[in-house]
Design goal:
By secondary structure, the protein is of the alpha/beta class. The chain folds into 2 domains: 242 residues, Aldolase class I (TIM Barrel, Alpha-Beta Barrel), CATH 3.20.20; 69 residues. The protein is 46% helix and 11% strand. It is built from 14 helices and 9 strands. It is globular. Bound molecules: flavin mononucleotide (FMN).
């Protein structure tokens, strides 16, 4: 089984990715949160930094594009290919209402003619690249509908028209956001119908969850070669190691990971309040490792100064056990 770290905008930037890789090696691919090209054909500084190969040294990183315009996407693909990326992922999953309203991410899925025209423009453009251009593979990360996962059947028919290296499926609709359960029936439908290799993504929190999804696929006569994990890995950064039969993170190890990240955030982010808000967002997930840590986690959330924050983290890690 191959394990992919899902892109999580605002969290898994290059500082997080490289620090995670240093402490918890074993993730096969890290997907870079989306870059959103526009008519100016410039990446934002943050996007450039995040896809800079020097900031992703030693990782297998895959950049991602969020767009609904073939020309802008083709421009971004060339930029990424020039930086040496061999796989580029198209984001058809983002559920944020501001994005979806513009018919981007999972907001494009219900406009099937526009989705098809977008993909057709991208693949036609790629077929016209000159022979000296570096090879690129295109993968897609998708939800299974805008309004409902019943849109899955129509979507897979469209995706089947294009040679994708992988179709990564998060079986929720845009309207679902992150509510309820991932729709495994809709996923299985895609798995059965897709002519492109399919990767499962959604709600994998434990090694047992990964085993279960692999078993469900095996019952359909399909091997699941790869899974993508997002929030589960934020909550437990050792999750892939555990899936490979290794040990769960200890408080001490989490402390070392935390300290390295905290230091690098201080070096790269503008000011304490931005650093603390990044750290608190991580604790929103990692806090789940400490079922008895309620009081300490509350202190972490309430901290407004570095000294308060650091003291609260020290108390949590020295008095509470990871479970
Ligand atoms: C804070 C946050 C940011 C995200 N950013 C992106 C993104 O940049 N690109 C993308 O394709 N998906 C993004 N996602 C979706 C995740 O990659 C993933 O598909 C989703 O969380 C479901 O997987 P999980 O249950 O393993 O977390 C984001 C999700 C969250 C919670």
């Amino acid at each position: 089984m191959q394990y992919y770290f899902a892109p999580l905008e605002g969290i898994t930037g290059y500082v997080y990715r490289t620090t995670h890789h240093a402490f918890f090696p074993g993730v096969d691919r890290y997907y870079i949160p989306f870059a959103a090209p526009n008519y100016t054909k410039h990446f934002k500084n943050k996007e450039k930094q995040d896809m800079d190969p020097a900031n992703n040294a030693g990782l297998h990183a895959v950049p991602q594009i969020l767009s609904n315009k073939a020309d802008e996407t083709l421009w971004a693909i060339e930029e990424m290919a020039d930086r040496g990326y061999e796989e580029i992922n198209l984001n058809l999953g983002c559920p944020m209402p501001t994005v979806a309203k513009k018919k981007k991410g999972s907001g494009l899925l219900k406009y099937t003619d526009e989705l098809d025209a977008y993909l057709s423009g991208v693949f036609e453009g790629l077929s016209k690249r000159d022979a000296s251009s570096p090879d690129v593979k295109i993968s897609i990360k998708t939800r299974l509908g805008t309004d409902t996962t019943e849109e899955a059947e129509g979507l897979v028919r469209i995706y089947n028209r294009y040679p994708l290296s992988e179709l990564i499926v998060h079986p929720r609709s845009q309207k679902d956001l992150y509510r309820g359960k991932a729709d495994r029936e809709a996923f299985l439908l895609v798995l059965r119908e897709s002519t492109n290799p399919v990767v499962y993504n959604g709600d994998l929190q434990t090694p047992q969850d990964v085993e279960e999804i692999a078993e469900i696929c095996a019952r359909e006569g399909r091997n699941m070669d790869s899974v993508m994990i997002g929030r589960g890995l934020l909550a437990d950064p050792s999750l892939v190691r555990e899936c490979r039969g290794g040990a769960k993170v200890t408080s001490q190890e989490l402390g070392a990971f935390h300290d390295a990240l905290y230091k690098r955030f201080q070096e790269t982010l503008p000011g304490d309040s931005v650093v603390l808000s990044h750290m608190k967002e991580l604790w929103f997930y990692m806090g789940n490792l400490f079922p008895d840590g309620g009081k300490c986690l509350k202190e972490i959330r309430r901290a407004t100064r570095r000294a308060e924050y650091e003291a609260a983290v020290r108390v949590l890690l020295s008095t509470c056990e990871v479970h």
